[in-house]
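Give me the fold.
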Amino acid sequence: MPYIIFFFLTYLVIGFQIGLFPAIEIVGGMINLIVIILISTFFLEIEKEGLIFSIVLAIAFDIYFYLPIGLSVVAVLIIYALLNIFRQKIIEKTNYFFIASIIFAAVVIFDLILFIGNSIASGHFVFERLFLSLLPDALINFIIAIPLFIIIQYLIKILAVYRIIDVKKSKIKVE
């Protein structure tokens, strides 16, 4: 039963990330659920499930947008490694603005890795495209980070009540 619900949620989120969000770009910026879910689950201390979920989303993202397979996965793993390196400093000062700022920085890193990898794969370096999409992507994700974090927090509580995921008591207090 938990696998069916995990599959359903994955399919739903892939639908939002690939089908809905590119259609409603705001000033050239697109909501990046891959990064938001990865960082939200990091702060809610269900990192393993969040990392697996983000990797599945990243593979679907690569396939749909014709990126070199694994490029988004590399970006997810680099962001996850950076979160773990700075874990102690991040956990000390956690509030909603700080989480949104971390998501802003992570989206910048994610977009830079995709740009560099895609440029190397195609042989064309188009810096205008990077600068036209980098700031709008980061700003849109900064703005939408708090509401989506609260929604993810609520969904995780629901999944924990029905014992679909195992949530340990979080030491991180988000205010």
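Helices lie at 2-20, 33-43, 47-64, 71-85, 87-92, 96-122, 127-161.
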